Amino acid sequence: MSSEPDLHRAISMKPNPFHHHPPRSERTSSPHPASSEIAVSRKDGISTSIQAHISDEHDPVARHVSASHESDVERQSPPQYTPDSDPYKLASALKAESEMAAIRANTSRKRDGFGPITLNKSAYKARKIEKFYEAQNENIERLLKPVDDHRREAKEEEGANHLKYRIAVVGSFVANIILAGLQLYAAASSKSLSLFTTMADSLFDPMSNITLILCNRAVKRVDGRKFPSGKARIETAGNISFCALMITVSVVIIVESIRTLVEGSKSETTKFFLPSVVAVAIAFFTKFSLFLYCWAIRNKYSQVRILWEDHRNDLFINGFGILTSVGGSKIVWWLDPMGAIILSCLIIFLWSRTAYSEFQLLIGVTADTNTLQLITYISMTHSPFVKQIDTVRAYHSGPRLIVEVDIVMDPEESLRATHDIAEELQIKLESLPDVERAYVHVDYETSHAPEHFLKKEL
């Protein structure tokens, strides 16, 4: 099985002070019926076959209850799982806190022996087991969570109700704008190639946010007749152009640095300009403060982790730029252009990696395994009249996902019931965060050839 695509470096996934996705209309589905006894048989890959035993007394409507009036209310007690909300009894696999505490107690044992390297093998295994069950609990709770709760948590992570998240996002955006001005002054006044490199990297941080904001406005003002599927991918296309521009600037700095090295210098050192070094030092310590703040909450908000990694990279670039600029003025002149070359190569590598992630989004890379599992489980439990799940696909179309689900229903079922169940499933899937469009295909058997082919033969 191939590894999952790593898309967290894409600019499209980076948070900004404004909601960079247009608001989605709130949709609800029908009330749920009584529970049914369903047996599951899994296939390899993303296709999952589900056999359901259906009684004729059930109505062809969705299983999950849509509770839009409770979607923004915090749960005050642990959820109580019933046969309707947990038909496959996944909750029985949840590890209780007492069991987790027993496993956790094994990790506090003393080391075997007296050496600093000889560790307790039992404690190491216990830590791995603890992490496994923690991940399993999180996965089960995520699958059993209603769609409304997924949507509510996504809204909260956008920062509407969390001050720490807003401080990290807005603080980083404002700091990037101010620091870009400081670094521009430092580079122009000192004429240091190393500081010009750090300035270019700092200047493009707020520009990337501005690019997302402008693309967001373009997405909202879409002509449905000209762009029937929307213009969400304009963000990804703009980010790829932005990456190309950043790489081009870095190449220009490399060429200028090489020219400076070839021409040489009449003096042993370059001119030292203290205000420039102070300006870059201020930028360094500001980034360090933001780095520490984002580090503290990086595991609570997935998007803050992107900011944390961005600040971490800027710390290295600014710190190395200060060292080579001061080294060129105090030790030997060629340290400055050599440092500019090294930094520019690093920036080209980082932005090329970002561009690769953006290209994956644009081409249509598959969603991660957790998302595929969630979509599969929602489709499985949508209605007792869904006999099987033939195929589940989810792939990116820009920053959001396109979902395709093939369900199997009774061939004798009425057209009205079949249509209503499929439409309700479509609405439910499109209510998930980051799902742009969902397509539900209804069939009556699973032995047919695939409806779509990867390679079209003309």
Percent in helix = 40-55%
Percent range for β-strand residues: 5-15%
Indicate the CATH architecture of the domain at 156-363: Up-down Bundle
Mean pLDDT equals: 76
Shape: elongated
Tally of contiguous helical segments: 11
Which consecutive residue ranges, at least 5 long each, have pLDDT under 50? 19-58, 60-78
* CATH superfamily label of the domain at 156-363: Cation efflux protein transmembrane domain
Please give the number of β-strands.
5
GO cellular component, one term: membrane
Biased composition (Basic and acidic residues): 54-75
GO molecular function: monoatomic cation transmembrane transporter activity
Membrane topology: Multi-pass membrane protein
Give an overview in words.
- The strands form two sheets. A three-stranded mixed β-sheet has the order 3-4-5. Strands 1-2 form a two-stranded antiparallel sheet.
- It has helices spanning 97-106, 121-144, 147-157, 163-190, 193-220, 233-263, 274-296, 302-330, 335-363, 369-380, 415-430; strands at residues 38-41, 49-52, 388-397, 400-408, 435-443.
- α4 (163-190) runs antiparallel to α7, α5 (193-220) runs antiparallel to α6 and α5 (193-220) runs parallel beside α9.
- α11 links the parallel β4 and β5 (435-443).
- The radius of gyration is 27 Å and the shape is elongated.
- Residues 19-58 and 60-78 have low confidence and may be disordered.
- By secondary structure, the chain is mostly helical.
